Amino acid sequence: MQSSHLLLEEPIRMASILEPSKASFFPAMTKIVGTLGPRSRSVEVLSGCLKAGMSVARFDFSWHDPEYHQETLENLKAAVKLTKKLCAVMLDTVGPELQVVNKSEKAISLEADATVILTPDEGQEASSNLLPINFDGLSKAVKKGDTIFIGQYLFTGSETTSVWLEVSEVQGDDVVCVIKNTATLTGALFTLHASQIRIELPTLSDKDKEVISSWGVKNKIDFLSLSYTRHAEDVRHAREFLSKQGDLYQTQIFAKIENIEGLNHFDEILQEADGIILSRGNLGIDLPPEKVFLFQKAALYKCNVAGKPAVVTRVVDSMTDNLRPTRAEATDVANAVLDGSDAILLGAETLRGLYPVETISTVGKICAEAEKVFNQDLYFKKTVKYVGEPMTHLESIASSAVRAAIKVKASVIICFTSSGRAARLIAKYRPTMPVLSVVIPRLKTNQLKWSFSGAFEARQSLIVRGLFPMLADPRHPAESTSATNESVLKVALDHGKASGVVKPHDRVVVCQKVGDASVVKIIELED
């Protein structure tokens, strides 16, 4: 990876930094994934989240039951209707996640330099001396000197809500640890992360399969976030499972890279997955702190050139309890955008944070500012060079549409698509203007009934940077017989005008299929 991969657009006028940010219909090109929970499940708060810029809702099944998540989802659907803003659904699996079980839910105080025993006997009650865990193979996986972190959602071993342990000895199935920092654990479940240790558990657990085949099928989930993806085989196995679950054969799989093992097999995982989530919380524990930024830059670069969405997590932890992010966090969000991230994933900040709407709004504003100085020219040249020649037909059309839009200073690119692939390829070149993806539904039949496809494809573009979907009238095919698909184009332009993206005398680049040929055309709007 070349170090000069992304530079800021030069020069930046210092005076421009003081100019107030302008509000727009699309808060930012970079998308925001919000994790829904106790603080973000009412129709009112969810409406606020959607208006602030959330385009994907994440349901984390490592806590609470399907009924609870169903209630939240029903409220989300009501909020979508109210705000008229599309939102995709992401199901996050539990995977081989180790947990401490605290049935009594009493707070557990742990003192530095004291010892605590981790036991697989879940019948025992959690206390300051004993913590029951949901895995009986920990004693075989760890050795003296290994590091273990325990906490609820945010855990670094530096704050008082999570604890850092060092293994001192193994006694049968129990693991005796020395406590390295004073902390108080509250709640019913805490995540346990054993640093750089392989846990012999399946990536897609039986519990995950049960949730996917019931809750996932019922709600036609758009994305499956595959926790603790360690090998390409994990993705293949999940895809095979989804292919047998009704409509879920269309669900996209995002591999969550959370440990050294996933990191070592990154290239083959990227090849199999539809997108990547860089879980920086767990990775930040497995990797030395000075290596985290390097992994982020390398991984995002690889995702970008492969044209697959990349999502970065754990950016504004402090906003879980505060209204403003720290300076380091604000810079971190901007750097994620400049490094090439498609979306920012908010976890505890929206799940149990005090300011879910404000957090989404703040992150969106930082992303929008970073996008203004993103060096698109350099990025475009590098992407074209990487793709090489001869280009595929679709790749050539996509890059030409972006080049034309930049040369004529178009306000928007409109792309007619039925699978969403053409629009994603255009977005891969990171145009400076929004890409309006007009998804034309296709009629299909299983010999018993007719149905339209297209809703999945539209929602799945909600995680791709710069891509904004709209579902067209199914009576207008994506492959037009005439040189202009006037009626659908008019609807798309009206949508652009209503959202303030398109104004009179603006130029618009349109990308569509006409018969067997693909056409890129430039239109200048009248009054």
From TrEMBL:
Pathway field of the UniProt record reads: Carbohydrate degradation; glycolysis; pyruvate from D-glyceraldehyde 3-phosphate: step 5/5
Entry's Gene Ontology molecular function annotations: ATP binding; kinase activity; magnesium ion binding; potassium ion binding; pyruvate kinase activity
List cofactor names only. K(+)
Q: Might you give the EC number(s) for this enzyme?
A: 2.7.1.40
Domain Pyruvate kinase barrel, by residue range, is 30-360
Taxonomy, superkingdom: Eukaryota
Which Pfam families is this protein grouped with?
PK, PK_C
**Reactions mediated catalytically:** pyruvate + ATP = phosphoenolpyruvate + ADP + H(+)
Print the keywords alphabetically.
ATP-binding, Glycolysis, Kinase, Magnesium, Metal-binding, Nucleotide-binding, Pyruvate, Transferase
Q: Has keyword Kinase? A: yes
List, for all copies, the residue spans of the domain called Pyruvate kinase C-terminal. Answer: 395-515
The record's comment on protein family reads:
Belongs to the pyruvate kinase family.
Q: What is this protein called?
A: Pyruvate kinase
